[in-house]
């Protein structure tokens, strides 16, 4: 410091600094608005554009789906515009009248308790299997993958010896078929996918080659072509008298398709298991299947559970494609009801699609929330 | 002794492995043989020909959208195949381009610091991803496009276009002879821009002096063709569609099926691309941006030189699989009757010829080829961009 001059430097303030203006609200509602919506001119412009967009889109939608909507009626007359009721919104009366068809298809009215029972048994299995804190989830797996398929088949198809009338699959339809296709997809694709994933990592070259060919082949083509293959080629490949039912053919196609995707998901889980786990199991003298079943798979499936659920969401959405090979799934029943001349009104198609969209959205969004919560939980336990 | 049992166990394991493989081969071979035998029997009983001889037979059915010359009376099934394939590629190419733009925009919007923008983008992604594509496609086709006014009530759009329930009718561009000069100018411009870029980078590496290439590039790529266009006397004219009482003549017709499929594929895939983009940008750690700022890079340069290159490495592989999904999903065209490969070939041709095995096999082979080609490119890309880990 150049303190050579006589005048000593003073570093201490001798008078108070001028008061700054109070800070603009940085907390509370105003602060939040400033930080998140109006922080810069660009942001203000963006906020205004979005607000205008919402103001332009939301009120007409609300009016269409709720305020102007028709809630009751017996045929199209209720949903047609009349001089005293010029704007007609969504035709919910149409959905109300057709609801049982959307759920059960042509399943005989007197037998529909069987479908309800099936839904209950399925819901029970799903909740037991997916609640991470539920007791004895090994029994749940046994129930879901062995007991439930047999039970469902007996319940839905019927078994004359115990007094259940046979209901041919041609009468099944609606959400029932959608749920069946999705459930069969998961029940078959998970075990098959695990086998394929293990096969792809096998030391045996033939097993590895066959697994890779199957997985890459199915993943390389659209589901539609797999379904076409199942529905037009499968009957050719079996003797005439064994020709499978139309629904069964579609189920075979869906199961094949889903297992290839599941195999890749499971493979991702297998890759996440540290090598040391394999080596430790080997060192303890475990043979291959016991090592896989007791050490590797439990860890791999746990890590990959969110991905399995995400694959299942994709599968659930893809079940709509069975529509194209002539199966009466939920979407097909909507299309059939929409084409009914008794209900041909300008707003029925949109109403039907909106109803279907809500159904699929609720199911898929629910599953994706579940996947996210599992992921968060796994991340927490991983940090420990 | 211990050595002997070791070799014994290993020997037994090898034998078991070979037995399993032989058993598997025999099993699968038997299944294939049985399937082929049954198929031959069933086909013979139904008097259906086999083999690919039908390829050169006259097709005899009409196709609503043909990019290459096709006539039902003279064209073959083989020609119909190419028409369908081109239609698939057309909708896929346009869908990929539009979905990329929309998807990147939504993905970036989801990361916006503006709460409203981020929430709107998130809402879009959630709704689009959780509703089946087929339902969205039917919605666009049956609920939106089919509710457009009919021919008499056509909506007249600026520039001589019409929109009605039969489709969108645009003026058809007519290229006269001088247009090739414009195309040539465009290619010269692109080539010049590439050379300029290489030179600018080389100079910067050598001397450190930066050369701003934006305006010169724009001048080369856009200005040069425009200049050629003006010099050759505007060789491009538009012939608008003419509407009479029952029909629309001339002009460029965009089928409602095509429009619905493009819109549905674009909006659906964009929802998935948005998630890919978001994950990619988030994968670049905040320290990278902070380090770039600390080195004195401007925000734009930080984005361009630091964030994007690293994010792209994460984005490209899942992005490719989304593009492949879009190509595969374009086969949903069959639900609304857009004449893509599946609709033309697995639908109409299969119904006419009855040769399920051949027709489905050809269709699957096309999609497999596309998929394998894409994964080949992806592996090459992954090799060039993989970071050498220490």
List the helices and strands of chain A in order: HHHHHHHHHHHHH
Number of helices, counting only DSSP H or I runs of 4 residues or more of chain A: 13
Radius of gyration of chain B over all CA atoms, rounded? 28 Å
* Amount of helix of chain B: 55-70%
Alpha carbon gap, first and last residue of chain A: 54 Å
- β-strand percent of chain A reads under 5%
Main interface by residue count: A-B, 56 and 55 residues
* Helix/strand order of chain B: HHHHEEEEHHEEEEHHHHH
CATH architecture term of the largest domain in chain B: Orthogonal Bundle
Per CATH, the class of chain A reads Mainly Alpha
- Give the overall form of chain A: flat
Main-sheet strand order of chain B equals 1-2-3-8
Q: How many independent structural domains of chain B? A: 3
Q: What is the strand tally of chain A?
A: 0
**Sheet/helix structural class of chain B:** alpha+beta
What is the overall pLDDT average of chain A?
A: 88
Estimate percent helicity of chain A.
55-70%
Please identify, by name, the CATH architecture of chain A.
Answer: Orthogonal Bundle
**Number of discrete domains of chain A:** 1
The total strand number of chain B stands at 8
CATH topology of the largest domain in chain B: MetI-like fold
What does the model show?
The complex is a heterodimer of chains A (384) and B (390). Chain A is an all-alpha fold and 384 residues long. Chain A has one domain: MetI-like (MetI-like fold). In chain A, 67% of the residues lie in helices and 0% in strands. Chain A has helices at residues 28-36, 41-67, 92-104, 112-130, 137-157, 175-200, 205-220, 223-237, 246-272, 275-283, 288-318, 330-338, 348-383. In chain A, helix 4 packs antiparallel against helix 5 (137-157), helix 7 (205-220) crosses helix 9 (246-272) and helix 8 crosses helix 9. The model of chain A has no long low-confidence stretch (mean pLDDT 88). Chain B is of the alpha+beta class and 390 residues long. Chain B has 3 domains: 2-47; 77-171 and 255-385, Orthogonal Bundle (MetI-like fold), CATH 1.10.3720.10; 173-239, no CATH class. Helices cover 67% and strands 7% of the residues of chain B. Chain B contains 11 helices and 8 strands. Chain B has helices spanning 2-45, 77-110, 115-129, 133-144, 179-207, 214-231, 256-283, 286-294, 299-329, 341-353, 356-385; strands at 155-157, 161-164, 167-170, 172-175, 236-239, 242-243, 248-249, 252-254. The longest helix of chain B has 44 residues, at 2-45. Chains A and B meet through helix 2, helix 7, helix 8, helix 11 and helix 12 of A and helix 1, helix 3, helix 4, helix 10 and helix 11 of B.
């Amino acid at each position: 410091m150049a303190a050579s001059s006589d005048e000593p430097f003073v570093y201490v303030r001798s008078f108070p600094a001028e008061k700054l203006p109070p800070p603009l609200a940085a907390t509370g509602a105003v602060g939040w608005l400033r930080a998140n919506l109006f922080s810069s001119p660009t942001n203000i412009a963006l906020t205004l554009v979005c607000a205008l967009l919402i103001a332009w889109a939301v009120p007409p939608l609300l009016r269409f789906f709720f305020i102007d909507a028709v809630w009751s009626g017996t045929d199209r007359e209720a949903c047609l515009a009349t001089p005293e009721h010029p704007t007609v919104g969504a035709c919910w009366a149409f959905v109300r009248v057709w609801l049982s068809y959307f759920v059960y298809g042509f399943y005989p009215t007197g037998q529909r308790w069987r479908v309800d029972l099936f839904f209950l048994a399925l819901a029970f299995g799903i909740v037991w299997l997916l609640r991470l804190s539920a007791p004895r989830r090994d029994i749940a797996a046994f129930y879901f993958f062995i007991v439930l398929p047999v039970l469902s088949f007996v319940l839905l198809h019927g078994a004359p010896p115990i007094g259940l009338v046979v209901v041919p699959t041609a009468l099944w339809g609606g959400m029932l078929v959608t749920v069946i296709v999705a459930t069969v997809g998961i029940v078959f694709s998970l075990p098959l996918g695990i086998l394929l994933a293990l096969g792809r990592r096998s030391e045996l070259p033939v097993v590895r080659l066959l697994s890779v060919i199957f997985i890459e082949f199915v993943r390389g083509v659209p589901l539609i072509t797999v379904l076409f293959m199942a529905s037009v080629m499968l009957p050719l490949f079996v003797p005439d008298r064994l020709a499978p039912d139309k629904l069964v053919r579609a189920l075979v196609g869906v199961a094949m398709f889903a297992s290839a995707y599941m195999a890749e998901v499971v493979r991702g889980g297998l890759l996440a298991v540290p090598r040391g786990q394999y080596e430790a199991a080997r060192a303890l003298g475990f043979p291959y299947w016991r090592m896989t079943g007791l050490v590797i798979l439990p860890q791999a499936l746990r890590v990959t559970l969110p991905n399995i659920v995400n694959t299942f969401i994709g599968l659930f959405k893809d079940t709509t494609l069975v529509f194209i090979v002539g199966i009466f799934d939920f979407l097909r029943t909507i299309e059939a009801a929409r084409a009914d001349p008794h209900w041909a009104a300008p707003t029925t198609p949109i109403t039907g699609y909106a109803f279907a969209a809500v159904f699929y959205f609720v199911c898929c969004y629910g599953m994706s929330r579940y996947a996210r919560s599992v992921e968060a939980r796994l991340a927490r336990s991983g940090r420990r | 002794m211990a050595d002997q049992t070791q070799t014994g166990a290993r020997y037994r394991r090898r034998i078991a492995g070979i037995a399993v493989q032989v058993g598997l081969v025999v099993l699968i071979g038997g299944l294939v043989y049985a399937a082929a035998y049954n198929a031959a029997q069933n086909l013979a009983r139904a008097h259906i020909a086999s083999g690919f001889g039908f390829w050169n037979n006259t097709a005899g059915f009409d196709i609503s959208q043909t990019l290459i010359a096709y006539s039902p009376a003279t064209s073959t099934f083989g020609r119909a195949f190419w028409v369908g394939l081109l239609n698939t590629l057309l909708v896929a190419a346009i869908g990929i381009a539009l979905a990329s733009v929309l998807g990147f925009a939504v993905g970036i919007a989801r990361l916006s610091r503006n709460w409203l923008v981020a929430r709107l983008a998130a809402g879009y992604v959630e709704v689009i991803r959780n509703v089946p594509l087929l339902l969205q496609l039917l919605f666009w086709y049956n609920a939106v496009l089919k509710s457009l006014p009919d021919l008499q009530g056509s909506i007249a759009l600026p520039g001589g276009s019409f929109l009605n329930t039969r489709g969108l009718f645009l003026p058809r561009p007519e290229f006269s002879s001088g247009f090739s000069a414009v195309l040539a100018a465009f290619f010269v411009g692109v080539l010049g821009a590439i050379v300029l870029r290489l030179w600018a980078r080389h100079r910067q590496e050598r001397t450190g002096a930066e050369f701003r290439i934006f305006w010169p590039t724009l001048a080369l790529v856009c200005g040069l063709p425009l200049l050629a266009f003006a010099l050759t006397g505007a060789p491009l004219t538009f012939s608008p569609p003419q509407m009479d009482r029952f029909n629309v003549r001339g002009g460029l017709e965009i089928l409602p099926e095509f429009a619905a499929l493009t819109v549905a594929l674009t909006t659906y895939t964009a929802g998935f691309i948005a998630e890919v983009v978001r994950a990619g940008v988030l994968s670049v750690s905040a320290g990278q941006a902070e380090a770039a700022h600390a080195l004195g890079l401007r925000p734009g340069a930080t984005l361009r030189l630091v964030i994007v290159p690293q994010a792209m490495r994460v984005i490209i592989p899942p992005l490719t699989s989304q593009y492949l999904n879009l190509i595969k999903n374009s086969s949903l065209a069959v639900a609304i009757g857009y004449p893509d490969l599946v609709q033309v070939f697995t639908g109409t041709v299969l119904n006419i010829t009855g040769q399920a095995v051949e027709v489905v096999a050809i269709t699957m082979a096309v999609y497999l080829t596309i998929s394998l080609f894409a994964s080949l490119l992806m592996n090459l890309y992954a090799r060039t961009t993989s970071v050498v880990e220490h």
